[in-house]
Amino acid sequence: MKEFFIAIAGIITTSATGHYAYKAGKRKSLAEAKGLEIDNDIKRSNHHIKLLDDLTERYEKRYKEFEEMTNRKVELLEEEIRLKDRKIKLQQQEITELKRENKLLRNAANRTT
Fold it and tell me: What whole-number distance in Å separates Cα of residue 22 and Cα of residue 38?
């Protein structure tokens, strides 16, 4: 009978130990899974932060390129305006000289007639 109680006690002890080990293992597995989930969330967050940082850098680079291109275009247009102003002044001088020459020719033609 004593052996029977020892056997039953062994079975109960083994069962209890197995049950507690299962519970502890399950809790540990859940904790590890939660830890992995948190690690993945952190990695994902860091990835998004890097993407946003890269986006900021690319935006600033493109903005500077656009600004430089716009400034070059403004300079070219200003230079074109200066050239056209010079051309207008030269044409006005030419018109003045042609008017003077025309007047001289008319005066000369009136004298000969």
Answer: 24
**Rounded to two decimals, what is the model's pTM?**
0.48
Tens of pLDDT, residues 61-97: 999 999 999 999 999 999 999 999 999 999 999 999 9
Alpha-carbon distance of 48 to 52, in angstroms, equals 6
Handedness of CA 31, 37, 41, 46 (dihedral sign): positive
As a whole number of angstroms, the distance between CA 109 and CA 1 comes to 157
Please give the C-alpha separations between residue 24 and each of 18, 37, 99, in angstroms, as whole numbers: 10, 20, 110
Give Rg (Cα) of the chain.
48
Tokens 């890097």 correspond to what residue? 50
